[in-house]
Design goal:
6 helices; mainly alpha; two-stranded antiparallel ribbon
Length: 170
């Protein structure tokens, strides 16, 4: 069995041989590169210019997107209102509901504690369409309780216009 000193000696000897081979190979590679540069009329400045990336690159810049195919999670500007107890995923209650709450019959189970008060504001005065006026039993509440005016469809309006035009002409 070889001793530690013998093994270290062999390692140094092999390292010297590897360095000599690398030096010999690099001389050959440099000679090939110079021959190609002469063949194509390139200079060291051309190589530096090509390596700096001044030319137009196609596609996304590095780090701009994920190439793994997974979508980046969109950040919401609204505070979360619902939380999935299993995964911890949240939803603000706006836009399309996520899969974990989509088919839930009672969404109040998923409400976050702080959002429960904002979900139903009982006791708080309701604001009317007019700025700064609370709605009470006055004109505003009576006007809100009236049935909206019947809307006339586009075809009904056309028929009425035709009828009016015919009666005026004839």
């Amino acid at each position: 069995m070889a001793t530690l000193a013998q093994l270290e000696g062999q390692i140094q000897k092999l390292q010297r041989r590897a360095d000599a081979l690398r030096e010999k190979k690099s001389v050959e590679v440099i000679a090939q590169i110079r021959a190609m540069m002469d063949e194509y009329g390139l200079t060291a400045a051309d190589l530096a210019k090509a390596g700096s990336g001044t030319g137009k690159k196609r596609g996304r810049p590095p780090g701009a997107g994920n190439s793994s195919g997974t979508r980046k999670k969109a950040t919401s500007k609204l505070p979360p209102k619902y939380r999935d107890p299993e995964t911890g995923a949240t939803w603000s209650g706006h836009a399309r509901p996520p899969g974990w709450i989509k088919d839930a019959s009672d969404r109040s189970v998923y409400l976050i504690n702080g959002a429960a008060g904002s979900a139903s504001r009982s006791g708080a005065p309701k604001k009317s369409a007019r700025r700064g006026h609370a709605v009470s039993g006055s004109r505003a509440s009576r006007a809100a309780s009236k049935k909206p005016a019947k809307r006339v469809g586009r075809t009904a309006a056309k028929k009425a216009t035709r009828k009016n035009a015919q009666s005026a002409a004839g």
